[in-house]
Amino acid sequence: MKVVHSSLLICFLVSTFASGQIRVSTNNRYVMTTDGKPFFWLGDTDWELFHRLTREEAEFFLEIRKQQGFNVIQAVALAEMNGLHQPNRYGDLPLMNDDPTQLAITPGANPANEDEYDYWDHVDFIINRIADKGMYVGLLPTWGDKVAQLWGDGPRVFNAANAAAFGATLARRYAKNWNIIWIVGGDRPAVYKIKVEGNEVEVDDRPIWRAMAQGIESVLPDAFITYHPAGGSYSTSSFIHEEPWLDMNSFQSGHGSREADAWNWVIRDLELKPMKPTLDMEPCYEDHPVNPWDGKWTKARGYFNAYDVRARVYRTVFAGACGVTYGHHQIWQFLNAELNPPINIGDTLIGWQQAAKAEAAGQMKFLKQLMLSRPYFSRIGDQTLVAGNKGTDYKDLVVATRDEKGTYAFIYLPLNHPVSVDLKAITGNRKSITWFSPETGKSIKAKSITASGVISFTPPTMGKDWVLIIDDAAQGYQLP
User: Fold this and answer.
1) Contact present, 226 and 181 (Cβ < 8 Å)
2) Fewer C-beta neighbours within 10 Å, C or N terminus of the chain?
3) Which of 1, 43, 113 is nearest to 364 (CA)?
4) What CATH architecture does domain 7-371 belong to?
């Protein structure tokens, strides 16, 4: 039997705290490193990582994500799936008596000694391995079911006082870790309505989340903090945009339909004052059944595939998002049917080891490479570049972005149909033309043109979606 001790008794204040390694860019649209370099957020939803994987499994998985170019591994300390009462793979729970002020920790951290290696030692190990691989942890202190009066395993254990203490405790524990990005919220809205004795009552959980964020900031004043909301209208910009601790907005376009026009949510967020970066923190998961919750799912309705993922995330980024978080439906839960029941998988059992190498997971790095191949902080969305038929919805809408100075433009075509482009915003007499494949990451150089006005471009016939790159040839930009 392990002897556990209250974290508040043995945690100590450290004299030197690690500074946050990312921050909001000077124009408030994007994210950058502390030395001013562009940081394109390419996240992965690995919610049950700490809770469900062994050390060896975590190492195997994280190496795959490193090779695939991800830079933010998003995982939850107090996990969603019965995370307070179902032990991790080493038989350990995170809290004593469901009390967020009492971390269940033991002296020592030797993984070969089960009396030493506790739940938080395992979290430490994974965070450190993520750092060793040059990636950040998008650390959720808790999943939202431990706060909100909504769905989920719970139990609800947080109030404003213990949320502040918990945030401060974790901030002290990880104060010297350079690779922590803080994400509160955990898939729950900050403000919502519930039924109480037949009457609709509004619940405001902002004081709890605010206290948790302030607890983090009481230890790490420069911590980068954002919020993971529930899907649809529960964007951070709707309820907590003006909170001073919120550094970046986010929304969740989710898995309920293919029709979600997430690019418009980016535009909406960027029009708010004060301006903050924004991104889709949970777009359609690869291999997720389309809306399995209505009780009417069939194989004909199908799953989101790699193309669905690309078509959504390229358009949100081109609309002005500072990055995106990819997800795979059997990765977030680290599906191993021998250990845990599958959650909403339709009729396809993949398993997390195979899912880690899914098609879109290997394609997301191409988007990051593309965005970092040109001047970054000066990029804006500009739909006036698309002349004539721009398309109307998720099936065919063409979305364009360019440098403020007009030295380049990217135009995403969800279908390989001709597109007409107004070149007046692009500088230089001679334009270099390139076709970039989101599916393969390869570029096809086309003939340079000397032209102005509206010109029609026809993409290659192979593949389904393409990015048209138009450069001022005098800039000498390289192929992405």
Assistant:
1) yes
2) N
3) 43
4) Alpha-Beta Barrel (3.20)
Percent of the chain with pLDDT over 70: 96
| Residue 86 CB partners (closer than 8 Å, separation 6+) | 51
**pLDDT value, residue 391:** 95
Q: What per-residue confidence (pLDDT) applies to 419?
A: 97
pLDDT in tens, 15-48: 333 445 899 999 999 999 999 999 999 999 999 9
DSSP designation for 283: -
Residue with tokens 């334009």: 431
Query: What pLDDT digit, counting tens, does each position of 426-443 carry?
Result: 999 999 999 999 999 999
| CA dihedral of residues 194, 214, 228, 293 (deg, nearest 10) | -30
Using DSSP's 3-state secondary structure scheme, residue 105 falls into strand
- Whether this prediction's pTM lies above 0.85 is answered by yes
* Residue 196 neighbours by CB under 8 Å, 6+ apart: none
How far apart CA 100 and CA 157 sit, in angstroms, is 7
CATH 2.60.40 spans which residues of the chain? 379-475
* CATH 3.30.310 matches 379-475: no
DSSP character string of 4-23: -B-HHHH----SSPPPPSEE
Strands 419-422 and 386-387: antiparallel
Which residues, in sequence order, are bridge partners of residue 328? 286
- CATH 3.20.20.80 in the chain: give the residue spans: 7-371
CB 163 within 8 A of CB 212: yes
Encoding tokens for residue 43?
């996240």
Per DSSP, the three-state class of 430 is: strand
